[in-house]
């Protein structure tokens, strides 16, 4: 618990140091709303990660659990959820340089703002394509507790997934080419990133069975958990760009979410499992944010508060549905 408190304090200090004098002339409420929305989105998209963590940690010695909860948390927050979005922004707008890529959205320099605005569609359509594909994979192929009418229909026709995403990618690229070849390339990169990360997750799922049944070292299990965390973090990092292009805000929001996920791992994962529709809420949030990013890449201007407010609304709906509805074993897909 000491480490948890210190980590929260450290995140707060980072926020103060990074934003510093910039916040004096800005309305702080939208920033707080964005950070809270990012934290919620990171948390709900990482519930599966928390469950895997709890299962593997139960087979490890106490020293290894402590190491993962302390140093693994710092790795998850700063090296994954901080470094990854920074590298993505820098790669998308290489003319900014490393420092401006970190602080670009809080800069008063008109040339930096223009560079971000010009390059943002490439990042947005790539992340949006990834998120839409992620939702469709869940809708068509993944085991789920049916929360809305129609989900069972798509589950029964899981073979359509590859045809649907192929046609959808062709549509994205066709319209993106009208705005520029780089934007179309961004859509292809988003599709490629989805299938690469999906392949890693499939391999990790098979590796988990070996971890649970074979006498592997605790260091091997720690490495496995960090790799799993990294693959799960891609969803949260890319989805974060639907909220903001600010790397510091993404670090704070996603770092908060990562902290909550680790606490869920330590506390009581079984209690979280009783909220059977939270996964549905996570995936419909993924769909909405993916569509927001694709829409923005095509020039549609949406309010900054739309992504966090919609995330709270969607997750809140499925959270309440979980509280009011017992686990319907008869309609739970087993794949």
Report the biggest beta sheet as strand number plus sense, adding barrel if it closes.
none
Distance between the termini: 38 Å
Class derived from helix and strand content: mainly alpha
* Beta-strand segment tally: 0
Number of helices: 15
The H-and-E topology, N to C, reads as: HHHHHHHHHHHHHHH
Number of domains: 1
What proportion of the residues form beta strands (DSSP E)? Answer: under 5%
Q: List unreliable stretches of 5+ residues.
A: 21-25
Overall morphology: globular
What percent of residues adopt helix (DSSP H or I)?
over 70%
What does this structure look like?
It is a single chain. This protein is mainly α. The protein has one domain. 77% of the residues lie in helices and 0% in strands. It has 15 helices and no strands. The longest helix is centred in the middle third of the chain and has 33 residues, at 181-213.
Describe the structure concisely for a colleague.
The protein has one domain (about 1-330). It is about 75% helix and about 0% strand. It has helices at about 1-20, 30-45, 45-55, 60-80, 85-90, 95-105, 110-140, 150-155, 160-175, 180-215, 220-240, 245-265, 270-275, 280-295, 305-325.
């Amino acid at each position: 618990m000491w480490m948890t408190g210190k980590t929260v304090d450290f995140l707060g200090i980072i926020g103060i140091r990074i934003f510093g004098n910039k916040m004096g002339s800005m309305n702080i409420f939208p920033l707080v709303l964005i950070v809270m929305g990012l934290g919620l989105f990171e948390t709900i998209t990482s519930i599966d990660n928390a469950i895997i963590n709890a299962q593997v940690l139960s087979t490890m010695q106490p020293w290894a659990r402590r190491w993962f909860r302390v140093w693994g948390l710092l790795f998850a927050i700063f090296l994954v959820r901080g470094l990854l979005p920074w590298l993505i922004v820098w790669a998308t707008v290489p003319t900014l340089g490393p420092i401006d890529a970190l602080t670009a959205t809080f800069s008063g320099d008109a040339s930096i703002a223009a560079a971000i605005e010009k390059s943002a569609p490439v990042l947005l359509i790539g992340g949006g394509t990834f998120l839409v594909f992620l939702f469709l994979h869940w809708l068509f192929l993944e085991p789920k507790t049916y929360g809305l009418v129609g989900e069972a229909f798509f589950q029964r026709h899981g073979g359509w997934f590859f045809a649907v995403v192929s046609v959808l990618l062709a549509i994205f690229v066709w319209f993106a080419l009208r705005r520029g070849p780089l934007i179309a390339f961004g859509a292809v990169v988003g599709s490629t990133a989805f299938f690469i990360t999906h392949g890693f997750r499939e391999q990790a799922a098979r590796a988990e069975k070996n971890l649970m049944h074979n006498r592997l070292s605790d260091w091997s299990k720690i490495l496995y958990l960090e790799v799993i965390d990294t693959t799960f973090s891609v969803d949260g990092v890319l989805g974060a760009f639907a909220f903001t292009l600010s790397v510091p805000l993404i670090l704070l929001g996603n770092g908060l979410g990562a902290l909550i996920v680790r606490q869920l791992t330590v506390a009581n994962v079984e209690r979280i499992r009783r909220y059977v529709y939270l996964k549905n809420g996570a995936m419909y949030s993924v769909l909405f944010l993916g569509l927001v990013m694709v829409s923005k890449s095509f020039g549609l201007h949406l309010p900054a508060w739309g992504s966090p407010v919609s995330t709270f609304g969607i997750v809140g709906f499925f959270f309440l549905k979980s509280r009011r509805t017992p686990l319907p074993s008869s309609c739970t897909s087993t794949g």
